[in-house]
Each structure stands twice: as C-alpha cells, then as structure tokens.
C-alpha cells in the first residue's frame, strides 16, 4: 500500500469520525455528566468497538472484493445511500428544541462506560456500512489482502480512539457552551451536511487498481 493511498484513507476516516453520530454523542454525554475521569475509558471503548466491527467487516470483504466487482459496486451504493439517509435525517431533526444531551446517564464506573461505548460502537450501522462500502476502495488487488487490511484497521482504530478522547476532554472543558441549544443545533446540522458530503464521496470514488 502506497503512502498516498494510506493518507487518503486516514483523511477519509478522520472526516467520518468527526461527525457527531451516536457514539460521539454518548462520549459527550458521559464527559458532560462525569467529567475527565471517564475520558480514557470512553476512548478505549470506542477503539475496541471499532476494532470488533471493522475486523468482522473486513474478514468478509476479502471474498466479496475478489469474487465480484458487481457486488462491490452494490455495497458501495448501499453505503452511499445509507449515509445520505442519515444526513437528511439529521438535517430534519428538531435539534433546537430537543437538546442532544437530555438523556444523561447516571454516574457509572469507567468499566461500565467502556462496555457501553464498545457495544454502541460495534453495533453502529453507520460504521459497519462505512467499513463494507468504503474500505475496498483502498485495497489494491495486486497486493496481499491481509497486510493491507491490518494497516487499515490499525489506522482507523487509532484515529477513532484519539478522536473520542479529544471529544471527551473538549466536552469536559466546555460543558456550559456545549449544553446551549444553539450549539446543539449547529453540531446537528453540521453533522448532517458532512454525512451528505461523505455519501457523495463514497458514491464517486472508484475501486483501487
């Protein structure tokens, strides 16, 4: 795998992970209610969940990728349409009237926070759709599949953990500002627009040679 191809994947992964979806909203919720003490547990939970989801997805990708270009194209469009659907849903949601963090969790030990975030992340359909539809774009057919998959998994999981940690620490430092309805509305609308942009990018990218 070339450095340029890896860098493109890292950039695309970062863009996806910055969208405030279910996982990040849960990270924010824990950080807002329990502070910095659960930040590391949150990051490790997200990383573990992504590791599970991405590994399971990529294991099945090898056969699909090598067997049928048509199946690959179908999966790509399913992913793009699902991202588009999520983006439209976020743009249409009444974020200004319903605070995102209204349902705050009770105080829980870091181990429980880790478990909750690992579960939510592993079962997040957006992430699984992304892995299935987007990862094949960065797999080169003329190179061994396993090493490339390992690099992509390690890259995504590492970025996911750092991203969750940054969100948790930032939320802890800016509790009052994030809790304001107008900020929540901005986050929701920005997330919706980013999802739609990601859908367009997923649909337009071509399979790596």
TrEMBL record:
Keywords: Cell membrane, Membrane, Transmembrane, Transmembrane helix. It is a multi-pass membrane protein. GO terms for cellular component: plasma membrane. GO terms for molecular function: amino acid transmembrane transporter activity. It comes from Cognatishimia activa. It is found in: Cell membrane. This is Homoserine/homoserine lactone efflux protein. Its main location: membrane. The keyword Iron-sulfur does not apply. The chain crosses the membrane at residues 6-31, 43-68, 74-91, 149-174, 186-205. InterPro entries: LeuE-type.
